[in-house]
Structure formats: C-alpha cells, structure tokens
Amino acid sequence: MPLNRSPVIPAVPAIVCAVAVATATACAPSQSAAASASQGATTVAAPPVATARTAGTGSTTGAPGIGDPDFPGDGNGGYDVEHYDLTLSYDPASRNLAGSTTIRAKATQDLTSFDLDLHGLTVSRVTVDGAAATFDRQDDELVVTPAGRIADGGKFAVTVDYSGVPQSLRSASLGEYGFIATPDGAFVTCEPNGAKTWFPANDHPADKATYDFQITVPAGLTAIANGELSGTPRTTAGKTTFVWREKHPMASYLATMTTGKFQVRTGTSGGGLPIYAAVADSFRGSLDTLITQTGKITDYWSSVFGPYPFSSTGGVIDDHAVGYALENQTKPIYGGFTPEPAIIAHELAHQWFGDSLSIGRWRDLWLNEGFATYAEWLWAEHNGQGTADATFRRYYANEADAMWSYPPGVARSDDLFNAAVYTRGAMTLHALRREIGDQRFFPLIRQWTAAHRYGNVTTPEFVALAERVSGKNLKPLFDAWLFRPGRPAPVA
Ligand SMILES: [Zn+2]
C-alpha cells in the first residue's frame, strides 16, 4: 500500500518526483474528502485488548486474539481457517449487505467455544457442522458455542448468516478502510483488519486461507473479487451474480468485493498470464495504460523476484478517493487516481511481498512495504530513470528526516504505515545489497520468495536466510537499519 507518505526530500529527481507528484496530487486525501469519508466510519481509538476471556492452559475456549502483541484483539486462537465460502448480496441503494459465510477450519485445541471477528452487522443464525450453535456478540468478537465439543485436530465448518449496513473503520495513520459504501457500490480495502466489516473472519494475516466468492449486485454493476471468475456472470430478475475463486492462500485484509459501474478489459501478459483490469467510468481513459503496464510490470517482477505466485494479475481504479492504493491479491486497487508506473510497480511487487509471503505479526510490516518501496527504485533503475543507489544516497543525505528517529523494524499499531517502514525499510534492503553484492542479493530475494511461497514470514527468518546465502554476519547491519533510532553509519 503506498499512501500519503511524508514529504519527500527537496530537489528530488525525476522518479522520486513522479511518485511524490502522484502522492501529492492524486494519492493524498484532501481534507474535504477525508472529512466526508469519515461519516459513517467507526473511529478506532486503540486496538481492543483481549483480556476478559484469554484462554489459559487446558482451556477449551478459543482465545479472542491470535497473539499479535501490537493488535491483541485481532484474529482468534484455537483454530486454523482453511477456506472461506462467501455468499454476498449488496444493494447500493439501501447499502444493505446480506451474507452467508461458511468457514472450513481445523481445531488446534479442544474447543467448546471459539471466536470470529465481525464488526457491526446483525447475525441471524450460526451453525457448526450443520447443527445450530449459540452465539454472543462482544464488541468485534462473535463468540460461537457449538452444540458439542470440537476435538483438537478436528475439522469443522461454521456457517454464519448475517445482514446489515457495513460500517467502515478509521485509523489515524491510514484514514478510512474496510467496506466503504460508494454512490454506485462499494470500495473494499481492508488492511490491516477491515475484513470483519463485511464477513466473519479470523481477521489477521497469520491465518491465511483460500476463498470462494458468490456476489450478487443489481444488474448493470460489476462485482470484483480476488482470483479468477468462474464462468460468465448470471443475470436473473434484475440481479447479476459474479462467482470468483482465489485458490491460493490469502490474508483476510487482501480480500475484496469492490462493486460499482466499471469498464472491464481482460487480456494476457507477454509472459502468458491472464490480466483483469477494471476502471470506474470516469477513469475510462486510463484502462489501456492500466492493463498494458500491469502485464509488463508483472512479467518483469517475475524475472526479478521469481515465478509469479498467482493465476492472474490485474488492477482496479475506482473513483472513490481514499488517498491510497492497496495490493488486493491478484488485483491491486487504486483509490481515485490513475497510478503512475512506480505505484503499479509497488502494488505488483506486493503480490510477492505481502500477498504470497505474508507477515505473521504487524511489527514486521517493513517486509511488505520496505520491499515494495525498494521495487519502485528497482523499476526506476530498470527504466534508466536513476539507480537505486542514487535514490538511496539522496534519502541518506537528509540528516533531518524523521525516519532516522523511527526504526522501521517495530511498526506500531498506532502508526502502522509510517514513512520509516517504507523508505528506511527500502534503504535497509539497499544497504544489504551493497554489503553482499548483486550476485548474492538477487538470488537471496528469489530464495526468499520460493522458500516461503504462500506462507507467513518474520524478520528473523529473513536475516537468517541473508546470512546463510551471504556467509556473513549481518546482525549489526539489520540492527542498525531496522531496530535502532538514529541514522546508521554510511554504507561502503
Ligand atoms: Zn505498499
């Protein structure tokens, strides 16, 4: 996700400027847009602290949090989701969403009750393996008590029927996210924990799963989700149903059901990958460029980062100006602006760094954003618009930059998307590249994406692999760049 990052240093050359211009003019939320967007959004003051029902040893109560110290209420314990089956019907006129979600999961302990995350909406019925279950709502936790105990290791299916007007979320460092109603549909971007605004979930990237979507909207609208369309959308009685399938594991925040009036084009990249591009009517002039650049950049990253992890690539431009883009799996979404190639390069790099390889705790966010920002520099280098080394040196020269006092290796819940995670994270990778050389650095990146494809990753795992590939002790380098305040010593 690139967003309204802090001001770029003065006298920036072409490529950094291109990103900055896009950020300043198109990506940055205007005050009025931000103000109007806030209506109906739920302000998130602080992550809920899960203390009331914390499961102890031997407990058969699934914990209300998955164990992320910075987001203690996010996700849940006691089970691992394998698949989400989402049946959804959305009516933009009334803003009502009716849903039935079936989650196939495996218990990781004996369970007499467990939680799902769900924000607002009214639950009408819950079943576990077809039998009625009792349920309770406690803030954003949906507590499910099945009729019988689920044994450790047992597989089960929980179905939740629900409806209501989804309420988006708001955070200080990001703005509005989750299910955001628009005049013609919905703009759905869920990082970090907004999936719960439209379906019950284990809403944390540590629990990835595959997804089936069956989304019904008024005829004439398009519903866009992840993965690929199954068959041709069917229209009956004035409503059209779109069936999408993401057969590769996905973090919940990357799921989308963006809907509205869209111009859609499909194609194939030079490398043979299917592409799906969609733009709101007011961006129809950007459709050609979006599909062309998306194919070209996906193919290029496949040669740099390793094989593309998914079955299709794509992009969506909606006319809702949230002030950021998000790397929704297989289809990054651009919120109300035509993306510069650098931004497309950033979002598509996330398909490897964030989507295929997902963080297991939010403090490792630099593994997503540092890599995607560094990809912007690599894209510029590839296009002869200045080397990554030159970009690195320009940032390094600015001693007054706030990122020096803000180590990126410990992203905080109250300021998750801070500039250090992006820029200093990218600089960390460049410092590593200088230290171990291109002949080790790029194979390291490909080994990283291959070893953890579709999985979860942590910073210590990356440091360990970098040391293994290079045969060097790199702890001082990573310590200085990621974990200590202050500007690290110059790189050689
Ligand atoms: Zn990003």
From TrEMBL:
<comment type="similarity">
    <text>Belongs to the peptidase M1 family.</text>
</comment>
<feature type="domain" description="Aminopeptidase N-like N-terminal">
    <location>
        <begin position="82"/>
        <end position="254"/>
    </location>
</feature>
<keyword id="KW-0645">Protease</keyword>
<dbReference type="InterPro" id="IPR042097">
    <property type="entry name" value="Aminopeptidase_N-like_N_sf"/>
</dbReference>
<dbReference type="Pfam" id="PF01433">
    <property type="entry name" value="Peptidase_M1"/>
</dbReference>
<keyword id="KW-0378">Hydrolase</keyword>
<dbReference type="InterPro" id="IPR045357">
    <property type="entry name" value="Aminopeptidase_N-like_N"/>
</dbReference>
<dbReference type="InterPro" id="IPR050344">
    <property type="entry name" value="Peptidase_M1_aminopeptidases"/>
</dbReference>
<protein>
    <recommendedName>
        <fullName>Aminopeptidase N</fullName>
        <ecNumber>3.4.11.2</ecNumber>
    </recommendedName>
</protein>
<feature type="domain" description="Peptidase M1 membrane alanine aminopeptidase">
    <location>
        <begin position="343"/>
        <end position="481"/>
    </location>
</feature>
<keyword id="KW-0732">Signal</keyword>
<dbReference type="Pfam" id="PF17900">
    <property type="entry name" value="Peptidase_M1_N"/>
</dbReference>
<dbReference type="InterPro" id="IPR001930">
    <property type="entry name" value="Peptidase_M1"/>
</dbReference>
<keyword id="KW-0862">Zinc</keyword>
<keyword id="KW-0479">Metal-binding</keyword>
<keyword id="KW-0482">Metalloprotease</keyword>
<dbReference type="InterPro" id="IPR027268">
    <property type="entry name" value="Peptidase_M4/M1_CTD_sf"/>
</dbReference>
<feature type="signal peptide">
    <location>
        <begin position="1"/>
        <end position="28"/>
    </location>
</feature>
<dbReference type="InterPro" id="IPR014782">
    <property type="entry name" value="Peptidase_M1_dom"/>
</dbReference>
